[in-house]
Each structure stands twice: as structure tokens, then as C-alpha cells.
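Notes from the 1:1 (GR / supervisor)

We went over the backlog. Supervisor wanted to see one worked example end to end before approving the batch request, so GR pasted a single chain during the call. The sequence is below; no edits were made to it. Supervisor asked that the structure be written out right there so they could see what the output format looks like.
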Amino acid sequence: MSSNFITVNSDGNLLLKLYIQPNAPRNQVIGIHNDRLKLKISSPAIENAANQECVKYLSSLLKTGKSNIQLVKGHKSRNKIFLISNILKEHPFFINLQPVS
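Structure output shown during the call:
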């Protein structure tokens, strides 16, 4: 597994690079694509709906509160960076991710 999509900042929090595909039939983790974690999100990219759905979906995937997840870059882009607090890089969710073929 390549973990180029995850970095640890000076505070020990994770920076997670994502590629988001909005308007999907359902929320889904696709895998690693161009050094980013690719997610399909069911919400449209209108009025911050997809960003909010990303936070909600990441919260459920990582089993952490939404307050631990913050969008720091890419508010109007498919390429996004989220700051994740109180989660380790070795979290079980990240262990089995595979590149998109």
C-alpha cells in the first residue's frame, strides 16, 4: 500500500489528500488514485454539500467525531486536503487500501 496520500503534520495530526467524485449513486471508497484517496460521494458539488458529505462519510469510516475532521484545502476542487485529529496513520482503515487498477 502506498501511503503518499497521508502525511503527519507537526502537531501529530493527519493530512489526508482526497480526490472526490460527487453525484455518485452512493458513498464509496474507490482506492488510491494518483497519490490521493479516491472517494465517490452521493451529494452534488453545490453549496458545500459534497464537502459536508465528505466530512460525514470520513467520520463514519474512521469511527471518529465530525469535529475531528476539517477541510483545509480544496473547498471548490475535487482535490481536497482534510486535517484529521486524534487518528493514527496506522488506523485499520488505511491498512488495506489498494491502488485503483
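Supervisor's comment: The two ends are 13 Å apart (CA to CA).
Batch request approved.
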